[in-house]
Design a protein that fits this description.
This protein is α/β, with parallel strands linked by helices. Among the domains are: about 60-285 and about 400-425, TIM Barrel; about 295-395, Dna Ligase, domain 1 (2-Layer Sandwich), CATH 3.30.1490. The chain has 20 helices and 16 strands. It has helices at about 70-75, 80, 105-115, 130-140, 150-160, 170-185, 205-215, 230-245, 265-275, 300-305, 310-315, 320-330, 340-345, 365-375, 380-390, 400-410, 435-455, 470-475, 520-525, 525-530, and strands at about 5-15, 25-30, 35-40, 45-50, 55, 60-65, 85-90, 145-150, 190-195, 220-225, 250, 280-285, 290, 350-355, 395-400, 415. The strands form 3 sheets. An 8-stranded parallel beta sheet has the order 6-7-8-9-10-11-12-16. Strands 1, 2, 3, 4 and 5 form a 5-stranded mixed beta sheet that branches. The protein has a 3-stranded antiparallel beta sheet with strand order 13-15-14, covered by helices on one side. Strand 2 and strand 3 form a beta hairpin. Helix 3 (about 105-115) runs antiparallel to helix 5, helix 7 crosses helix 8 (about 230-245) and helix 14 (about 365-375) packs across helix 15. Bound molecules: zinc ion.
């Protein structure tokens, strides 16, 4: 019997080729792990043929901002990505990568990962170089592609731990050498997380010098910028400056203005547009969530984030030092994370308790309501809960204006990201309430909310925007990698291009989009990340590292 030309043929589909072309009708032939041909409808034959009809077929989406660095080693099947059409995760974001690691500083690097609940020693942490890390990923045989950025935080802890000072020349030289080595070994660029320790302690010059190293290898610079609220414009300007002086493309990560600068998306995007007019390559990304669920203590100023728990409790128990801490939050000298804005501006009605071990009656109640009931100042109620739960209290911080998210997602210079990480199917979690929807539902959620329910974005090109742009991040990592061509080589004749999805049409063959209430979406979803590993899972069972040994 003659061998089939293709293993699978998707026939008569609407093809959105990911290059910015209008959709067109055709067959897609898959041979082994690759697309073997795209041809006119009804012309390809395969061992298995699936008539797709009016559903859309697109190349796998690239998720340009994830934190799957370690979880991909634990959940290499990556169901959470594949089931929403994502086939590539860019990892190493926000200044955090799993490599390079320097032996004696390994505990510092593991502490950096504590926030994501992946300090578990069972991960092995056998790798030291970036190349060795990539080999560990390859050995896990993941079902998605992984593109890794080198985290500035990883470089900085390797050179100088969490020291709150500028880098000395020899430390700067070590960071540059480690970055150079990592880029040679396959990294795609440099990332920073400038509201978190240790990135927040770095000068712009330190980062420019590192960016120049990444630039020599055609890398990019992706930044969780230094302040996403009141100082967001200065922070975006700093990112642009680093790209200009380091001579490399800039990606401003999850760029919605947080509480303290609501409505700021337009000015922020204006800076990026202006940089592009000057000839600089700057783009941005954002997820679709208005809230986040970190531990309450994560909203405290950076120097306090490094304290061992007992020291933190001693500080909060001393009235004089507690008053000073409150002033530090209000003054925000090192701009903290976005959700810190709610605490700084005393918006305690926008912070609800998601999980407070030993105090189940508080779940779902706002800090403002708890404070009123207790007859205390809301700021004190907030700090008291940190002590009462031994820093295990998790809050939902409702800190982003959805209009800013809309402005970003619909902007042509912006791409969609999840800011999630690969995780197992819900049923494999010990506690399904700790399920993280943005890791499974980000892309279906965007297609559901902003394409199907609200005509903010359109799936098909021909309109100004596309909800998911595999072509843009795919074209991102410089000249070393295959660029998508603007036209599919075997493209058949075009079909007419609808400017919008036809009324009543389901926008996409998207995986089951589960609609969650606003509070659930990112809030519950991000619990695992925020919870620092207290949320056990059946695999990996992330362990909370002791703070700052
Ligand atoms: Zn970030």
């Amino acid at each position: 019997m003659a061998a089939w030309q293709f293993d699978i043929v998707l026939s008569h589909c609407r093809i959105v080729d990911g290059c910015g072309n209008p959709w067109y009708r055709g067959d897609v032939g898959v041979r082994g792990p690759r697309i073997g041909a795209i041809a006119a409808p009804g012309t390809l034959r395969g061992a298995r043929s699936i008539v797709v009809g009016d559903r859309y077929v697109a190349p796998g989406f690239v998720d340009p901002h994830t934190h799957s660095d370690l979880s991909i080693l634990v959940y290499p099947r990556a169901d959470s990505a594949l089931r929403q059409g994502v086939t590539t995760h860019v990892v190493g974001n926000c200044g955090m990568s799993a490599a390079p690691a320097v032996g004696r500083r390994l505990p510092d690097l593991q502490q950096l990962w504590e926030y994501y609940g992946f300090g578990d020693p069972r991960l092995g942490w056998k790798w030291r170089s970036f190349g060795a890390y990539l080999r560990a990923v390859a050995a896990a045989a993941p079902s998605i592609n992984i593109a890794g950025l080198v985290g500035h935080g990883a470089l900085r802890v390797a050179a100088m731990g969490f020291d709150e000072r500028p880098a000395r020349p020899e430390e700067q030289a070590l960071m540059q050498r480690l970055l150079d080595e990592s880029m040679r070994q396959g990294a795609f660029g440099l990332s920073t997380g400038l509201v978190y320790p240790p990135g927040c302690f770095a000068t712009t010059e330190e980062i420019v010098a590192l960016a120049a190293v990444a630039a020599r290898h055609h890398g990019i610079y992706a930044s969780h910028i230094r302040g996403e609220r009141e100082t967001i414009l200065e922070a975006v300007a700093e990112a642009i400056r680093i790209g200009r002086e380091g001579r490399l493309p800039v990606e401003v990560s999850h760029n919605a203005p947080k509480w303290g600068a609501p409505g700021g998306a337009a000015a922020n995007l204006g800076l990026i547009e202006a940089a592009r007019r000057e000839g600089q390559d700057v783009t941005t990304d954002n997820d679709s969530h208005t809230d986040l669920a970190p531990r309450l203590s994560r909203a405290l100023p950076q120097p306090v984030l490094d304290l061992p728990l007992e020291e933190l409790f001693a500080l909060l128990g001393d009235p004089r030092r507690r008053a000073q801490l409150k002033r530090d939050v209000e003054e925000d000298r090192l701009p903290g994370a976005g959700y810190t804005g709610l605490v700084r501006h005393h918006a305690f009605d926008r912070i609800a308790v998601l999980h407070a071990p030993g105090l189940p009656a508080l779940t779902g109640r706002s800090i403002a309501a708890i404070a009123a009931e207790r007859g205390v100042d809301p700021f004190d109620a907030f700090l008291d809960l940190i002590v009462e739960t031994r820093d295990a209290a998790v809050g939902i911080f409702d800190y982003i204006d959805e209009d800013d998210i809309r402005a970003l997602l619909s902007h042509p210079l912006s791409m969609c990201c999840s800011d999630g990480l690969v995780m197992p199917p819900c049923e494999e979690l010990d506690d399904p309430s700790l399920y993280w929807p943005c890791s499974y539902g980000e892309y279906p959620g965007i297609l559901e909310r902003y394409v199907r329910d609200e005509p903010l974005l359109t799936l098909v090109p021909g309109a100004a925007v596309r909800p998911v742009r595999p072509w843009r991040p795919a074209a991102r990592p410089g000249g070393r990698h295959r660029r998508l061509r603007p036209r599919a080589p075997t493209r058949p004749r075009h079909q007419p291009v609808p400017a919008q999805c036809p009324p009543g049409e389901r926008a996409a063959p998207a995986s089951r989009g589960h609609r969650l209430r606003a509070g659930q979406r990112a809030g519950r979803g991000r619990l695992r990340r925020a919870h620092g590993g207290a949320a056990g899972t059946s695999v990996a069972a992330p362990r909370r590292l002791s703070r700052r040994a």
